Amino acid sequence: MMARWACGHCGFIAWADDREAMREVTGSHLLAHTPEAVTQSDFRTNWDCPYCATAKTAYDVDGAVEEFKAHLHEHVADRIVADAHVADRFDWDGTVRIDAPVDSDDADALRTHFHGHAELVIAVTPDPERFVRLLDDRLDAWPRRTVVVSTEAYRFDEEAAVDVEDGSIEVVELDPRLGPDELGETVSRIIDANHDAGDVLSLEVSVFHEIVSAFDVRTACGFVQMLSARLDDSGGSLQIYADGDADPNVSTAMNFLDGEIDLTLTPEDGRFIRRA
Ligand SMILES: [Zn+2]
Ligand SMILES: [Zn+2]
């Protein structure tokens, strides 16, 4: 679980490892709302807090700004919430877009955050071995049930180092000629076969770029809408990993899907940011 801080002036929300790690976020963000509070005169830097009567003057510009950020942090420190999960925002029933390179450490931090709190994990991934390794390395315990769906083969007997109980992971190898409709149906059947009442379901789609480039923007959007509607029945969090900077068509598709997405997150240095 993480610490969460929501700005009182705009829609910005940050999740960080703990309260201490949030210091790097709050002061800079609040300063950006009141740039006029810092002024230069003669050789000195002045700051004048808009929230209280405190004002300071110093010769050291960087030192003055850092001191002001630390001061601003204290105004909001008691609004930082502990033990928060990103999916609390929509009670584990919603669609999240993760705006980051799909195979980056930043994206992995979100994968771990979601899958580590689920009983049933389904991952549609281009690289099943990388996915299994990630969960094995990062999670304290495997979810009750993990189903990895990929067009790439993955044989467990070659990977004896993975520490998982027999039967708790299944790898479903897809025929690469199948389209998004068949993929959606496969995922739906996997949910039917594996989802027990009360299970928290975490569904990751890390092949959105492949679907957009192999088909078209409309088909890719239809796929996400269909999965999202499927999860309305069972409950669960759908995570779409989509790096708009890497592919303008992915960016276009995500714009179309705006109404479908409950939360867009940018992972940065172990923190998760929802911009205003
Ligand atoms: Zn703000
Ligand atoms: Zn103040």
What secondary-structure arrangement, pairings included, does this model have?
Elements: E1 2-6, E2 13-16, H1 19-33, E3 38-41, E4 44-48, E5 55-58, H2 61-76, E6 81-84, E7 93-98, H3 105-115, E8 120-124, H4 128-138, E9 145-150, E10 169-173, H5 180-194, E11 201-205, H6 208-214, H7 217-234, E12 236-241, H8 248-256, E13 263-268, E14 271-274
Parallel strand pairs: 7-12, 7-13, 8-9, 8-11, 9-10, 11-12
Antiparallel strand pairs: 1-2, 1-6, 2-14, 3-4, 4-5, 13-14
The protein binds zinc ion (2 copies).
What can you tell me about this protein's structure?
With 276 residues, the protein is of the alpha/beta class. The chain folds into two domains: 2-82, no CATH class; 87-274, Rossmann fold (3-Layer(aba) Sandwich), CATH 3.40.50.11570. Helices cover 37% and strands 25% of the residues. It has helices at 19-33, 61-76, 105-115, 128-138, 180-194, 208-214, 217-234, 248-256; strands at residues 2-6, 13-16, 38-41, 44-48, 55-58, 81-84, 93-98, 120-124, 145-150, 169-173, 201-205, 236-241, 263-268, 271-274. The strands form two sheets. The chain has an eleven-stranded mixed β-sheet, sandwiched between helices. A three-stranded antiparallel β-sheet has the order 3-4-5, covered by helices on one side. A hairpin with a 6-residue loop joins strand 1 and strand 2. Helix 1 crosses helix 2, helix 5 (180-194) packs parallel to helix 7 (217-234) and helix 7 packs across helix 8. The radius of gyration is 22 Å and the shape is elongated. The structure holds zinc ion (ZN) (2 copies). One zinc ion binds next to helix 2.
